[in-house]
Amino acid sequence: MREKEKHWLVRPETIRWLWVVFIVVLAVTVAWEALLHRHPHFGIDGIFGFNAWYGFLACAAMVVFAKGLGYLIKRPDSYYDAQNGVTSDDPAGAGPAGDDPAGDGNAD
Hints:
This protein is an all-alpha fold.
């Protein structure tokens, strides 16, 4: 029987190909800006490559903000276990006694 193939997005040659395509598209869009006549509304948006730098910095700022927000609202791994009555004495994690009305070990 044939070995299961990896998904096309996790193959090393596909990842390399996607990086090359991304870099080429980025280079073409930045180079295309040199051919366009821009109409800047503010002083800084008339700089060559402003849109690329602005997009990159905005994306990086969102990542940093999301990481900070994650640290702010993070809960411990056992957060929901403590609320549902699961204790360290209950290794199966069955929860409160009310989850198994028949008492036969099946919560169905």
